[in-house]
Specification:
Helix content is about 55%, strand content about 10%. By secondary structure, the chain is mainly α.
Length: about 210
């Protein structure tokens, strides 16, 4: 993502590249012409002064600033935005932010709290809610996922003591499995539940409502 973001070209950068395609040969041509004029007519046969004039023209009219300013500003802007959790797909999208007049956000809780927060806990009929949270919190505490951190924090805020973890394994894109206080625990997506043959159809309506 980062490589693609910094490697893509914004419309202004593409325009600058087109200008440079003409500007660079033009400046080099003027520098050479200045050298010849100085060497042949202003100070005939004097190579050093003519070379100094040529170098002066190249330095003063250097296209480096024009060529480097845009990609440097894109890298600086996208890097600064990333520090605040804002990612841009490319330089074009970063440039278009100047025309933004309305921002619509679909993750109100995240924006308000600045991080994910545990809001609801629903357990199946007959389950001990406190023991359930003790097992879940202990397993999730081993995970580095931001949602896992929110779950653990929410459980600890309720004053529930976490169980002892004997085994833990993170399953990428699915969830986690662990052994907590001698009991097997699986936490994750619908696919993970299906993989272990766990029927969650009775809680799906409530889950979809909360989603």
């Amino acid at each position: 993502m980062k490589i693609r973001k910094q490697g893509s070209k914004a419309p202004f950068q593409r325009l600058a590249d087109k200008i440079l395609g003409v500007f660079v040969p033009f400046v080099v041509g003027i520098a050479i012409a200045t050298f010849l004029v100085w060497f042949l007519w202003v100070q005939p046969g004097e190579f050093t002064p003519a070379l100094e004039v040529l170098i002066s023209v190249l330095v003063i009219a250097s296209p480096c600033a024009l060529g480097l300013a845009t990609p440097t500003s894109i890298m600086a802007g996208s890097g600064r935005a990333a520090e605040f959790g804002i990612l841009f797909k490319g330089g074009e999208h970063l440039e278009q932010t100047q025309s933004i007049n309305t921002v619509v956000v679909d993750k109100t809780g995240t924006v308000i709290h600045d991080k994910p927060v545990l809001t609801d806990v629903v357990v199946a009929n007959g389950q001990d809610k406190e023991r359930f949270l003790s097992l879940i919190g202990a397993a999730e505490k081993q995970s580095e996922h931001p949602l896992a951190e929110a779950i653990v924090q929410g459980i600890q805020d309720k004053g529930i003591e976490l169980g002892n973890v004997q085994f833990f394994e993170a399953i990428p894109s699915y969830g986690v499995q662990a052994t907590v206080s001698g009991q097997c625990v699986g936490i994750g997506t619908r696919k993970l539940m299906q993989q272990y043959g766990i029927d969650v159809s009775n809680v799906l309506p409530t889950m979809e409502l909360l989603e």
